[in-house]
Amino acid sequence: MNEIVEMERLSDYTCNPEYVSEWTRLMAGQTAFLSGLNGADHPSKITVCIGEVDVEGLRKYSNELVYQAFDLNMRMIAYWKVVLRRLVDSMALHLQLSVTNLVNKEIEKEIINELMGPNYGCGSGIERMLEEPPSVAVKREKLVKSIKKLKDSKEVVSKIMDGMIPYPN
User: Fold this and answer.
1) What's the predicted TM-score (pTM) here?
2) Which of 29, 145, 157, 164 is positioned for an S-S bond with 48, CB 3.0–4.6 A?
3) 115: helix, coil or strand?
């Protein structure tokens, strides 16, 4: 987050069209602000587009300097909205990148550690995967017996068929 704020602070750049329209809207109150500041009744606070502004301390500065300060303040207010939107977007992108990295890198490491074991030479995870559960061993034995019976039956049927079919001499 600090890097994002620092990038925004250094760049002072925006291509967002909302920045210009917001700055223009805020600057529309400049005439009322300056006339209130230099008015005959000398109010201590002036209401402008951003709210009430205490102007008592501003009267000691020249109109040009107050104008520049007003302009700068309105630019910062308009730009801050753009910065906030970028921060939200950047945080969302950062979260997406972090989750992707977690899934692609960290979980991959965990899977490899689980399969290969803490000492990569042991291969305990792969050995566990290759171990035959007892239920599978029982089924395998039944299938082996069934195959043996089928082979024996084939031989018996073959002998019977050989005795039944006369061969021409």
Assistant:
1) 0.49
2) 29
3) helix
